[in-house]
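Handoff note, outgoing to incoming analyst
You'll be picking up this chain. Sequence as last confirmed:
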Amino acid sequence: MCGRFSQSMTREDYLSYLVDEGDRDITYEPEPISRYNVAPGTKVLLLSERDEQLHLDPVLWSYAPDWWDKPPLINARVETAATSRMFKPLRQHGWAICFADGWFEWKKEVDKKQPYFIHRADGQPILMAAIGSTPFERGDAAEGFLIVTTAADKGLVDIHDRRPLVLSPEATREWMSQELSVKELESVILNRMVQEDAFTWRPVARDIGNVKSNTPYLLNDISL
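Most recent structure output, in case you need it:
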């Protein structure tokens, strides 16, 4: 986890949930983003803080340093995100937030894998913790971002044992601070992450497995 997610609302839908208009340097865009099947290896709008202003930039979802001889990473475990040498180039350029409506997970059921769409029960946007560098800051092989994951609990563990680290609006500015110590990071995680009982999930069509599929139908409950 997390291998696919939806980022389909307008920029304003996500931003207004998080911060006042005067506290950001982001061009107003009324059109919906309309990405119902965001896949790794594509550029995704990523929120970061620079010079005490919020910025929204398209950043590649994946990361592989020059010496890495395996497929690019797409997730970073929160247990090692703040300390691993692997992620140091990303940490140097910021802790970020990736907006989403929800994310997809596949669960093995009998003789097939069934995808589920997981989202907040109250319909609010999901603020996924991320680490990443923006193109204009680096523009080299270290460009990219990773979604930070944590252990799943309660009912969510039945779908997958890992889930995105989803933060409350109040915690996002703390997360995006580049001066966050490991101890402060642990405090944010323990006290400000959105708990499992805030989420619900539903089975969706296996079309989500096709990276070319991009339609609101992908979010529909196929059990209805």
